[in-house]
Specification:
The structure holds 2 protein chains of 2 kinds. The radius of gyration of chain A is 23 Å and the shape is elongated. Chain A is 66% helix and 0% strand. Chain A folds into 2 domains: 103 residues, no CATH class; 92 residues, Arc Repressor Mutant, subunit A. Helix content of chain B is 73%, strand content 0%. In chain B, helix 2 crosses helix 4, helix 2 packs parallel to helix 5 and helix 4 packs across helix 5. Classes of the chains: A mainly alpha, B mainly alpha. Chains A and B meet through helix 2, helix 4, helix 6 and helix 9 of A and helix 1, helix 2 and helix 5 of B.
Chain lengths: 217, 73
């Protein structure tokens, strides 16, 4: 028997169909499938934290904890959502997506254990370095940096400003901000998207950046 | 990054950008196309635009692609 999914077994590749049959099997067979999937998810999570590790302030056992938590939570998400699997990819690809998302969420949460900067701080002096401006050539970019700050204060709504300052000025990772604000990635990205558009338009209108509004960017 | 151009690139927005929700929803399909060498960017330009602009979604895409290429078993 197949579980209730939005696709028929005949539309699936053989491996995906086997996974779905195993999920729908009774007792020990289902448990064995879940154990096998957990093993795969843990392997993917470990590779993923190792891939991201060099860019994170997380090492050793903490990275392994992230991988374990991500695999466990991904397995829960998958078992809860298997009915939504539509067979548009292999089952394992769909499943791996969940563990990758969980790794991101766990890393975002981990940021607040040792935050480099409190949420309310504003490290405007760091802004030029974040975009790679050479300190030795400050005369060339001083006006632009001041114009960016002015535009942030004038053009953005308070919420857009809060998010822009956290992410761009203070360097808080977007996924970490999502957790601190109890929001979601899409909402924060949308806020940043609108902020970027407004700021670029203001900087272009004042001659700091090329004005190509006619191209609709 | 290198100053002026980096700031300009960062502030530019692509009207085709579908946002995180749709990109995350479709990520497994998109990644499988890319892993298979299919023209995913042509088929899903809005997702491609988003993955270029959104650091977290781009990172997830790279992770999923790596998982597909190196998957155990």
């Amino acid at each position: 028997m197949m579980p209730e999914v939005a696709v028929s077994a005949s539309e699936l590749d053989a491996e995906s169909a086997r996974w779905l049959r195993a999920f729908a099997a009774p007792g020990a067979a289902r448990e064995a499938a879940l154990a096998r999937l957990h093993e795969l998810l843990l392997s993917i999570a470990r590779r993923e934290v190792a891939r991201r590790g060099p860019r994170l302030a997380i090492t050793g056992p903490e990275l392994d904890d992230v991988a374990y938590q991500a695999a466990a939570d991904a397995l829960l998400a998958i078992t809860g959502k298997v009915g939504q699997f539509r067979g548009e990819s292999r089952f394992t690809t769909w499943a791996y997506k969940f563990v990758i998302f969980e790794v991101s969420a766990k890393i975002g949460r981990h940021f607040w254990r040792h935050p480099a900067v409190p949420l309310g701080a504003e490290q405007w002096e760091q802004l030029p370095a974040r975009f790679g401006f050479d300190p030795a050539r400050e005369a060339e970019w001083r006006d632009l940096a001041a114009a960016v700050r002015r535009a942030v204060n004038i053009e953005l709504t308070p919420r857009q400003r809060e998010i822009f300052v956290a992410i761009v000025v203070n360097g808080v990772p977007l996924d970490a901000l999502v957790i601190r604000l109890g929001s979601n990635r899409n909402a924060i990205y949308k806020m940043m998207f609108d902020a970027r558009r407004k700021l670029r338009a203001a900087l272009a209108a004042n001659g700091y950046l090329p004005d190509d509004s006619a191209r609709g960017s | 990054m290198n100053g002026w151009p980096a700031l300009d690139r960062f502030l530019r927005t692509d009207p085709q950008d579908v946002g995180c929700a749709q990109a995350m929803e479709m990520l497994h399909i998109y990644a499988e196309l890319v892993a298979a060498g299919e023209p995913a960017e042509e088929r899903y330009p809005g997702i491609a635009a988003h993955l270029h602009a959104c650091g977290p979604c781009g990172e997830d895409f790279e992770g999923l692609l790596a998982a597909l290429r190196d998957a155990p078993g």
